[in-house]
Specification:
The protein contains 14 helices and 8 strands. The chain is an alpha+beta fold. A 3-stranded antiparallel sheet has the order 1-2-5. Strands 7-6-8 form a 3-stranded antiparallel sheet. A two-stranded antiparallel sheet has the order 3-4. Strand 1 and strand 2 form a beta hairpin.
Amino acid sequence: MPASHTDTPRKLLSSLRRLSDGELVARVKKLAAQERRATALLVAHLAELDTRDVHLRAGYSSLFSYCREVLALSEHEAYNRIEVARAALRFPVVLDLLAAGSVNLTAVRLLAPHLTPENHRTVLESARGKKKVEIEEIVARLSPRPSAPTSLRKVPTARSTGAGAATARSAVIATPSAPALDAPPTNVPAFMPASAPLPGPEPPGKVAPLSPGRYRLQVTLDEATVEKLRLAKDMLRHSLPSGDDAVILDRALTALLNEHARKKFAATEKPRPSRKASSGARHIPAEVRRAVWVRDLGRCAFVGKSGRRCNERAFVEFHHAKPWAVGGEATVENIELRCKGHNDHEARVFFDRGSEKGALPSFASPPALWRRGGNSFQNELPGG
């Protein structure tokens, strides 16, 4: 095999390992900016291409097919770029925002049907730096949808691959416009040929905003859970004659969170007197965990050099700011919340530095500590 196919990537990776953190970050930022500008240029060219018959003369039935086969774009990439290109023809400011990284392709695609000559600058400005779920909330404000009707129906039987036994499943469907779980979508873009794979239905459990403060949830339940739902309606018939599934779900979640809090933090209406942790004890008292959880808002409290706080909610752990292995105590002042990634990161940084300075006690073996979660008291919290 020619050297150009094998040696060049290896040389590139080898050269990157010699860069300092600052040099590497600077290059990554520069490349990301170049990629955004290239994307904006591609979208602009597709917008012009869409006004001509180039793809038809080349033997392709649609611009979508041309992008897939000639430009080697994935279906999702082609769909996004064509939709955004058509929006850019109407509102050229889209190209400037894409090049600057103020909005991304998905944001423009979702907002495009709701943009008008009067509102497009305000709406696009409100979308700066927003995540997809936040863009969906903007769309819900621009075009509120009616409340989703509650219905309960049986979906097709799913057979297990092992014993071949059939398992009946039921679905709570709450949607005024979305297709059924077993039906193909109807909103296929005009440029997509009939032979192209259709976008699948929304994933089970997706929460979609309908209008400000109101959301739709579509989820598939098994038969036993449906029976529990019906029993809950019967038991609440006097206090909740309507049997509203949304109200029952809210009550069930409230009860679940209250129960989870009692288990995780030993929360009771009449707590026992505080038990002070002995010096060097790894155990974190319940009152400390509760205070830390409330103070850190149930989120990772790691703050980067730029001043950005992580705020991750998933798999959060109690973290000793001064590690337990070197005498850190389980106090409110010394315990903070960390996501698993930042907890492991801080453990590596601390013990690497300590090893270099010879400041670690002999029992504080970094590999052993990392294996059992660094310097944290591993305890998954609500939302984790």
